[in-house]
Amino acid sequence: MDETRTYTVVLKPEPEGGFTVRVPMFPEIVTYGEDEGEALAMAKEAIELAIEYRASIDENIPDSQSTPVRGLTVLIPAA
After folding, report:
1. Each residue of 15-68: pLDDT tens digit?
2. Reduced to 3 states, what is the DSSP secondary structure of residue 14?
3. Domain residue spans in the chain?
């Protein structure tokens, strides 16, 4: 039976524009999109391909990301 899973993706804005995307549960995935929508579409496709590959070699498919990801603000002392 088919099921759905949700994975955390990290979008890093690039200085020249666009976003580099990483998927913590799939460390092999690094992709890019010209805008947020394209970056997310590329990440979705990469996740689906990684799952397909892992299933083809009987490798474990990670469970959905259950650990929340949060940002922290820290103070950088003046030089």
Report:
1. 999 999 999 999 999 999 999 999 999 999 999 999 999 999 999 998 876 667
2. coil
3. 10-56
Nearest residue to 46 (alpha-carbon basis) of 69, 13, 23: 23
3-state secondary structure string, the chain?
CCCCCCCCCEEEECCCCCEEEEECCEEEEEEEECCHHHHHHHHHHHHHHHHHHHHHCCCCCCCCCCCCCCCCCCCCCCC
Amino acid letter for position 66? S
Block residue for tokens 């590959």: 53
